[in-house]
């Protein structure tokens, strides 16, 4: 574990339990320091110990697609406009 410098201790105190943004001057990358109690509450959102399987991901994509209207017959026109379809037909020797 890293101990906070006096400068960081003051920043933490001034932040009053709010996240603090830090910048690495060598890389210009930003980091966020937040109280452990807040991290513990939100870490499951970012660090899932059981990621979705490919099948679960596909099922969610289908569900979302259907919920936004991809099953609407008016969307069928996009199947005909698919540029990959032309490539596949020419490779198979179809006009």
Task: Report what the structure shows.
With 95 residues, the protein is mainly α. It folds into 2 domains: 6-46, no CATH class; 54-91, no CATH class. It contains 5 helices and 2 strands. The protein has helices spanning 6-15, 36-46, 54-67, 77-80, 83-91; strands spanning 20-23, 30-33. It has a two-stranded antiparallel sheet. The termini are far apart.
Question: What's a quick, concise take on this entry?
Answer:
The protein is mainly α and 95 residues long.
Topology record:
Elements: H1 6-15, E1 20-23, E2 30-33, H2 36-46, H3 54-67, H4 77-80, H5 83-91
Antiparallel strand pairs: 1-2
List keywords for this structure.
95 residues, mainly alpha, 2 domains, 8% strand, elongated
